[in-house]
Design brief:
By secondary structure, the chain is α/β, with parallel strands linked by helices. The chain has a single domain, classed as Rossmann fold (3-Layer(aba) Sandwich). Strands 3-2-1-4-5-7-6 form a 7-stranded mixed beta sheet. The longest helix is centred in the N-terminal third of the chain and has 20 residues.
């Protein structure tokens, strides 16, 4: 069973990895597919824009909120938005190299700060966050219980979490990841959500809204190789994405056919 101490030790290795970004050839191939082919699909059919705009909707009025940008690396577009509009913004990441860059970007926001620190570390004293933004972060913890307990500890009453993580719940993705994992440079901290993990979050928090992405739409990766017009492929991809997005919000079988999951979760009244 994983302990906080063993997880913190793994996170130190993770910090070194993200400081140097040294990847073996297999991890480079996977990164190329994820950052190349998948991102082109996401941008081409509007998946990425819809997810980002949904997150902005979920942010709501930030003027009175304490916000934690968890695992923010050097910050993205929404990091700057959160820093500009929230009452208090704290961005944290394991990588001191990335946090140094974020600190420079936050220099014009007196309400904002950036820390190179482990979320699980006893040295991180900040708490009572109204919002924790965790984009591509929660799946980095092998022990779901440890991260759920820490999230509850750091959230204010009725505090919310916005998450975005990969799923490992559809058969083709399970097979690909099974074949890839023995060669993966970052395997020690890459744990895409299984059905069991999803239901742990569902039991721990009130899931206000959820959406799956890249369900039917993941087959665009193969469709792109076929000699059909780009206009026709894009139109079909948009249709598939609409079905993925809408049906996954209420139907588990559709959600678990997807590659990615984004959620708006809220702390339960009985959580400490």
């Amino acid at each position: 069973m994983k302990t906080i101490e063993s997880t913190v030790a793994i996170n130190k290795k993770q910090a070194e990895f993200y400081n140097t970004k040294k990847k073996n050839w297999m991890t480079q191939i996977w990164s190329s597919f994820r950052n190349g082919t998948l991102n082109r699909i996401k941008k081409g059919v509007g998946i990425q824009d819809q997810a980002y705009l949904k997150h902005k909707e979920w942010f709501g009025d930030l003027s009175s909120k304490r916000v934690l940008d968890l695992g923010c690396f050097s910050g993205n577009y929404w990091s700057m938005y959160l820093a500009e509009h929230s009452k208090v913004y704290i961005g944290i990441d394991l990588s001191d190299v990335a946090i140094e860059k974020l600190s420079q970007r936050l220099i014009d926001f007196p309400n904002a700060s950036a820390l190179a620190i482990d979320f699980l570390s006893s040295e991180f004293k900040e708490k009572d966050f109204d919002l924790i933004y965790a984009y591509g972060v929660l799946h980095h913890f092998e022990s779901t219980k440890i991260i759920i307990d820490k999230l509850n500890e750091k959230l204010a009453p009725k505090g919310q979490i916005i998450s975005y993580d990969p799923l490992q719940t559809s058969l083709p993705i399970k097979i690909i990841r099974l074949l890839y994992r023995p060669f993966q440079s970052d395997a020690a901290w890459e744990w895409p959500f299984t059905k069991k993990v999803y239901f742990q979050y569902e039991n721990a928090f009130s899931i206000i809204e959820r959406h799956g992405l890249l369900g039917k739409t993941k087959w665009m990766a193969l469709l792109s190789l076929l000699p059909f017009s780009q206009k026709w492929k894009t139109k079909l991809g948009q249709k598939w994405h609409k079905e993925d997005w809408e049906k996954s919000s209420t139907t588990d079988s559709v959600l678990f056919s997807c590659m990615h999951l984004t959620m708006l979760m809220q702390k339960r009244n009985n959580s400490k």
